[in-house]
Design goal:
The structure holds two protein chains of two kinds. By secondary structure, chain A is α+β, with helices and mostly antiparallel strands. Chain A has two domains: 73 residues, no CATH class; 44 residues, no CATH class. Chain A has four helices and seven strands. In chain A, the strands form two sheets. A three-stranded antiparallel sheet of chain A has the order 1-3-2. Chain A starts with a strand and ends in a 5-residue tail after the last strand. By secondary structure, chain B is mainly β. Chain B has a single domain, classed as Beta Barrel (Cathepsin D, subunit A, domain 1). In chain B, strand 2 and strand 3 form a beta hairpin. The longest helix of chain B is centred in the middle third of the chain and has 4 residues. The chains are: A alpha+beta, B mainly beta. At the A-B interface, helix 1, helix 4, strand 6 and strand 7 of A face strand 5, strand 6 and strand 7 of B. Strand 7 of chain A pairs parallel with strand 5 of chain B, so a sheet runs across the interface.
Chain lengths: 153, 119
């Protein structure tokens, strides 16, 4: 099967390790193409002999089985970034410190948000208000939902 | 009301949890702030309701995006809906602090007892 490649702008090269890490942890339904069953990845080009203090490769590409698969992964990464940005720019001031430690569900498409005691409570409030889109959960006062502090193999 | 657990073969505190059609052994992990995490291979057998996505921060400074679901489980003889995350990053089921918020957990390494008492 022919692989589809889409170039990554050199200004985004430094974000590649983190982006790749997030892609690897995305649920299979988002990371793997439902039509062709293949993963979307990021692939760096040939290593440069002279880095000149920059990144050690000249080019990097999104790679996948089809444009739709790459689009889906890029879209979900964009939506997650936007949800976090929405929290930082708009919600943090509204929700902290009153709701510190509670869970906020941000609808990825609209940016609408709902606060609950946990994911279920927040999601129920979103659904009750008629929101059917994908939700992204964050803990108020934290850049993530949970910490998993026991090392796992 | 009380749930009694035990120490597994790795000397870790665990309980049996009635989840869906059967029961599974879950590790009591107070280093995890969420409800339940189950590995991918358990998920296929369960009646999970998808709620959204969330991100974890691990001890190895990894940020893990995972699917957040809810599931009905038997908890202190009541059927309750609790948050559960399915992840490829764990090999065993974990029960975290969110499940214990109205409970007293006692792990007595000397007497080899594990108990969760509803407050």
């Amino acid at each position: 099967m022919t692989r589809v490649r889409r170039p990554i702008d050199s200004s985004d090269f430094t974000a590649i390790p983190r982006t790749r890490q997030i892609i690897e942890t995305l649920p299979d339904m988002l990371r793997i193409c439902p039509k062709h069953g293949e993963e979307v990845t990021i692939r760096e080009g040939k290593l440069l002999s002279k880095q000149g203090g920059g990144v050690p490769f000249a080019d990097a590409n999104w790679e996948g089985c089809c444009d739709a698969a790459i689009d889906r992964v890029m879209e979900i990464l964009g939506l997650i970034d936007r949800a976090k940005q929405t929290y930082r720019d708009e919600l943090a001031n509204k929700l902290e410190p009153e709701h510190l430690g509670k869970m906020v569900a941000i609808e990825l498409d609209t940016g609408d948000y709902f606060v609950g005691s946990d994911e279920i409570d927040a999601a129920d409030k979103a659904r009750a208000a008629g929101h059917e889109g994908s939700l992204y959960f964050l803990r108020v006062g934290s850049p993530y939902a949970h910490r998993l502090m026991t090392p796992r193999q | 009301m009380q749930i009694d657990g035990y120490f597994n073969a790795q000397d870790e505190p665990v309980i049996k949890l009635d989840i869906g059609s059967g029961s599974i052994e879950v590790l009591l992990d107070t280093g995890f702030g969420g409800g339940l995490i189950i590995p991918n291979h358990f998920a296929n057998q369960l009646d999970l309701k998808f709620e959204g996505l969330e991100e974890f921060y691990s001890v190895t400074e990894e940020r893990i995006v995972a699917k957040a679901y809810s599931i009905e489980i038997d908890w202190f003889d009541k059927l309750v809906r609790v948050p559960v995350v399915v992840s490829t990053k764990v090999n065993e089921a974990l029960l975290g602090g969110q499940m214990l918020k109205d409970c007293c957990l006692t792990i007595d390494y000397g007497r080899r007892t594990v108990t969760i008492v509803a407050s």
